[in-house]
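Exercise 4. Each item below gives a protein and its sequence. For each, produce the structure-token representation.

Item: Receptor-transporting protein 4-like (Seriola lalandi dorsalis).
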Amino acid sequence: MESETVVLSFVFQAINCSHIINRAAVTRALFTSYSIASPQRLTSSTKRSSAFRSPSTMSRSTDWIPGLWLDTFNDLLYDDNELDYGDQWTLNFNYSQTDQVTKEERKKGWKVYCCRAFGHFKCASCSKTWPSARVVVLFRYRLRSDRGTVIMRPFGQACRSCKNNEFELPGFSDKEVEQALLRLFSKIRKNIYGEDDDDDGGSSASSNKVWTKPHEKTLCQACIMGICTQDDD
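Answer:
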């Protein structure tokens, strides 16, 4: 009986030793599994951390990702209370809208805000990539009763090499998306709620010195439509 007890004790010690040796490996495995799991709704500060961003957001900044705009829009609204007036706001997308607002639309409360942002493009034909500090983003917004609506359209650019008149949609960094939306919220506070706002918190990241190749209007979808110059930086 004593010999069996000694053997069992030795076995448990060996298992415990093995556990200690492999603890670091197990910890790394658990952390890796957590990092690649489908992201849940996190707090604003956590979601914007690079450690918890989705792989597409981190490694493919040339991709147009509507979900990134939707997530950031909701984070700024409900976590940071950027429009804390008790109304419900939603973000939608329309890839054919223009900056023109008819008299009838104005009567219904529609307003337009057009801003410039820094983004990246990738040609679907030749895979060439390029940055641009003059990516145009158009927002149409209104408030009816207690429901606010924002309709967004990003404008594309054509590849200088291919010149096939195909406009690629831009990709944006997390920071640039946040800054563009902060500028939009500043306009909403001023034009919808009558609040004086200095707009400092929403200055675009592209307002810093970002040197890119000269902007070619013939390759810019917004310029061709006569919209590109309507940036009130």
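Check: The helical segments are 2-36, 44-47, 55-59, 66-79, 103-107, 174-191, 221-224.
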